[in-house]
Design brief:
Structural class of chain A: mainly alpha
Number of domains of chain B: 2
Number of helices of chain A: 11
Strand content of chain A: under 5%
Strand content of chain B: under 5%
Largest interface: A-B, 92 and 88 residues
Radius of gyration of chain A: 23 Å
CATH topology of the largest domain in chain B: MetI-like fold
Oligomer: heterodimer
Shape of chain B: extended
């Protein structure tokens, strides 16, 4: 019955959706295609194909080093941001009224401030507290950026938690610390997991904070940025393709896990 | 032996009752090491408050408010980083500098225009997509349809900007295609122009529009649409009178997010833009590079940009969002 009313608008919407999907995927697929090009410059049509560029990139020490560095920073960021984010969410969840509103606004502040300004203010801040630019400063910057997202995700889950679970645990003699670790934390599990994946992607993608807080050792986005500026070759396409594949696998796996936990 | 005594007593000894049902956690909380430290804190009312609020409050004051406060303070100083022998005074000169030269305020205006255009284009393009996923796709296929739209965004900012170059370069896909069909005989300069920046911005930020719109449209009850259809409203009337007003929250938060992100982009104008399209982020960053330290002026410019973008978003929320109180 609905089809009678919605037939042509529905069809138009459907084709628009697929056009949009094409728009999203086209540049990325072109980028992947050029990574197989048998020439040292980027142009179309592709011509002969080769995997020589892959062999070259895999042996590129700078690239491998940047991969390791990115993973290390992302892991540290995720660990710290998750703990602090859950802690802040627990505090906001226990507040009422205006205090809750203010705490939530302050907790979300780093997500609302434009990236460039956040990076500049952190650059000034680490000079004030006498922290040199480098690994620690990058991690600090990434954590500040990631915490609000963890807070929002955990808080959403926390608000759906039945209050009597905590009351029951307290009645049965658990103190508040034990209740948190044995009741609240397991309940928050899926939200925390989602937040952690988000932190990983956020940290490994981040450019502007790393650019201002980093030292001489580049992370992957920094390396690709520097290579794009110094002259393009299919080598960059190979690096970008490898990153694309890894992030897609991580993202899809996380999506699969959250969907499975939702069905259960 | 222990078993024998307990049955003779007719009761269960305390230690057996404790250990039989206890897990690892219980062993921990009954140990003196826990009871006299964390356990004591958890028993004491102020200890609990300290435990809950201590780290979050310190973190938020230091890391969320601290950097912005520090930036504001330095933007009012005459010199920074502090040097021996030079006295730093409070001054408004850094803010005056911004208005003194076209070289400085023009990029902000340009950033503002690009961000506004990108926001408008993104809203118009993404709205039908969000509507399609939220209302036309069956609930079972919804998460898959959404996943298809999310997946390209895992690639990250720099890689997505780089992939736009593949499309728009002089020997990129679009130009080659146009030449093949015979529409042009020489490549059209698309990269390093304002077109490539706008295109890249929209390509970078459309996810931030999609998610708020989707969650707002999904909440609209289907019964309202059915009822209005029964009462004779056509697709356009239904859209204008029901879907659009009820998705206002999503429009407001999506537009705010996209606008703020566009104002703060740094890599896109550098990689996709030319000398005539430099944006305010580049102006600000130039104060922080090189040996000549002009940090106070850079901080002042960043404060101006922050204030300008927040005021714009605030006004937009006020005008479009109505009087309703919003959390985020």
């Amino acid at each position: 019955m609905r089809a009678v009313f919605l037939d042509w608008p529905g069809l138009a919407l459907k084709s628009f959706y697929w056009l949009f999907v094409l728009y999203l995927f086209l540049p990325l697929s072109l980028m992947v295609a050029v990574s197989f090009k048998d020439a040292s410059f980027i142009s179309f049509p592709l011509g002969n194909l080769t995997i020589d560029w892959y062999a070259k990139v895999i042996q590129d020490k700078q690239f491998l080093d940047a991969c390791l560095y990115t993973i290390m920073i992302a892991a540290a960021t995720t660990a710290i941001a998750t703990v602090i984010g859950v802690w802040i969410a627990m505090l906001i969840g226990s507040l009422r009224g205006a205090a809750q509103y203010v705490a939530f606004a302050v907790a979300c502040l780093p997500a609302v401030v434009p990236g460039m300004i956040s990076a500049i203010s952190l650059r000034i801040f680490i000079t004030t507290i006498d922290l040199p630019t480098g690994t620690v400063a990058i991690i600090l910057g990434h954590v500040v950026h990631a915490v609000p997202f963890v807070v929002v995700m955990v808080l959403t889950r926390l608000r759906s938690m039945p209050g009597n679970l905590v009351d029951a645990a307290r009645d049965l003699g658990a103190d508040s610390i034990v209740t948190f670790f044995r009741v609240t934390l397991p309940y928050l599990g899926p939200a925390i997991f989602g937040g952690m994946i988000f932190c990983l992607l956020l940290s490994s993608d981040d450019f502007v904070r790393t650019f201002f807080l980093g030292g001489y050792r580049p992370t992957l986005p920094m390396l690709i940025f520097a290579r794009v500026q110094s002259g393009m070759s299919p080598e960059i396409n190979v690096m970008a393709t490898l990153v694309l594949v890894v992030t897609a696998v991580v993202g899809l796996y996380a999506e699969y896990l959250t969907r499975r936990s939702r069905i259960r | 032996m222990a078993v024998g005594t307990s049955t003779a007593d007719g009761g269960i000894p305390a230690y057996a009752a404790q250990m039989k049902y206890s897990t690892g956690i219980a062993r921990v909380i009954h140990s003196p090491a826990y009871r006299y430290t964390l356990g004591a804190v958890a028993e004491w009312r102020y200890g609990r408050i300290l435990l809950l609020a201590g780290v979050p409050v310190v973190w938020m004051l230091m890391m969320h408010i601290g950097p912005i406060y520090e930036m504001l303070r330095i933007s009012l100083l005459s010199s920074y980083p502090p040097e021996p022998g030079v006295e730093a005074n409070f001054t408004l000169d850094n803010y005056a500098l911004f208005f003194s030269e076209k070289l400085y305020w023009m990029p902000l205006l340009r950033s503002f225009v690009y961000a506004s255009i990108a926001t408008a284009v993104t809203l118009i393009v993404v709205y039908p997509v969000a509507y399609y996923v939220a209302k036309v796709v069956s609930p079972g296929g919804r998460s898959r349809a959404l996943l298809l739209l999310l997946a390209p965004f895992w690639a990250g900012e720099i890689i997505r900007i780089f992939s736009v170059i593949m499309l728009l370069a002089n020997r990129g896909a679009v130009n080659v295609l146009l030449r093949e069909i015979g529409l042009t005989d020489r490549p059209i300069q698309m990269l390093y122009t304002s077109f490539s920046i706008s295109f890249g911005l929209v390509y970078m930020v459309c996810l931030y529009m999609l998610l708020p719109l989707y969650s707002a449209i999904e909440k609209i009850p289907k019964s309202l649409l059915d009822a209005s259809a029964d009462l004779g409203a056509g697709p356009f009337t239904r859209f204008r009178r029901i879907v659009l007003p009820l998705s206002r929250d999503g429009i407001v938060s999506g537009c705010s997010l996209v606008f703020l992100t566009c104002m703060g982009v740094f890599a896109a104008p550098i990689l996709l833009g030319g000398p005539t399209t430099s944006m305010f982020s580049e102006t600000i960053s130039s104060f922080f590079h090189g040996a000549s330290s002009r940090w106070p002026a850079g901080a002042a410019f960043a404060m101006i940009m922050l204030a300008a973008s927040l005021v714009t978003v605030g006004l937009f929320m006020r005008v479009v969002g109505g009087s309703k109180q919003r959390t985020f």
